[in-house]
Amino acid sequence: METPTTEALHNVKALTFDVFGTVVDWRSTVHQELVKLAREKIESPAFNTLPESLRTRFKALTDENWAKFGQEWRDSYNKFTRSFVPGKTAWKDIDTHHYDSLHDLLRKWGLTGIYTEDELLSLSLVWHNLKPWDDSAAGIRRLGTRFVTATLSNGNQSLLQDLNAGGNLGFRKLISTADFGAYKPHPSTYLGAAAAIGFRPEEVAMVAAHLGDLAGARAAGLRTIYVERPREEAWGPEEQQYKEARAWVDLWVTESEDGFLEVARRLGVPE
């Protein structure tokens, strides 16, 4: 039985999911990998062949420093995707961006040369191995018994395939914004996803932990489901746009609730 608050979603037949931050916890996985590789590098025989100033700088980095590094890496992704203009900006997929921005960050932090090219490539692909939130796999699979479930992510197809398989997520369709030569929040990504699934925009609900993403989906005619995740929202509760979103989001799941499992419960999808 649907609850009164889900009336706006009555005609929805498909759910498209943002992935980074919404389905997977990018922050903890990336941080853990950065710390792990740093420790392995320090303990490796090759470390002593590096310049002393570089070794000293590298060894001084704390877990908190690496958390900041990871956040800056993520911030570079947000800047890249939001500044991309279809038809004008030269195309670059997310794997390539992650590799290029990793190089840029190491240069900014004075760490150029600390890793070999093979190590850099491997590290840049950590985004293929992100850990899902605890409710993600069970929630997506449960929702998939009633709705077509699909990714709608800026991640490229190979990245999404790895996350889906590695996290046992069970998405029925993998859609990347790269399929449309654009990045969210460009309207073509939301409209393209709806068309790819075979439904009208109003028959599709976007599921995301970012109100900016949902605003883009709403502008394209999709319904909206907001699932709060730790430290993911860019809009502050005191901001006007956040307060207005409280009125237009069709379904809002708070961080204290059970993520996608709560979405399924409110939509009346049985266990």
Low-confidence stretches: none
In sequence order, what are the helices and strands, one letter per element? EEHHHHHEHEHEHEHEHEH
| Spatial shape | elongated
Oligomer state of the chains in this structure = single chain
Percent helix, as a range, is 40-55%
Biggest sheet layout: 6 strands, parallel
Q: Give the integer mean of the pLDDT values.
A: 96
State which percent range the strand residues make up: 5-15%
Provide a count of the helices: 11
According to DSSP, the number of beta strands is 8
Q: Specify the structural class.
A: alpha/beta
- C-alpha Rg, in Å? 20 Å
Terminal Cα span: 13 Å
Side by side, the strands of the main sheet go 5-4-1-6-7-8
Question: Summed up, what is this model?
Answer:
The protein has 271 residues and is α/β, with parallel strands linked by helices.
Describe this structure in words.
The structure is a single chain. The chain is an alpha/beta fold and 271 residues long. The protein is built from eleven helices and eight strands. It has helices at residues 26-43, 52-59, 63-83, 94-108, 117-124, 136-143, 157-166, 187-197, 211-219, 240-248, 259-266, and strands at 14-17, 24-25, 131-132, 148-153, 173-176, 204-208, 223-227, 251-253. Helix 7 links the parallel strand 4 and strand 5 (173-176). The protein is elongated, with a radius of gyration of 20 Å. The model has no long low-confidence stretch (mean pLDDT 96).
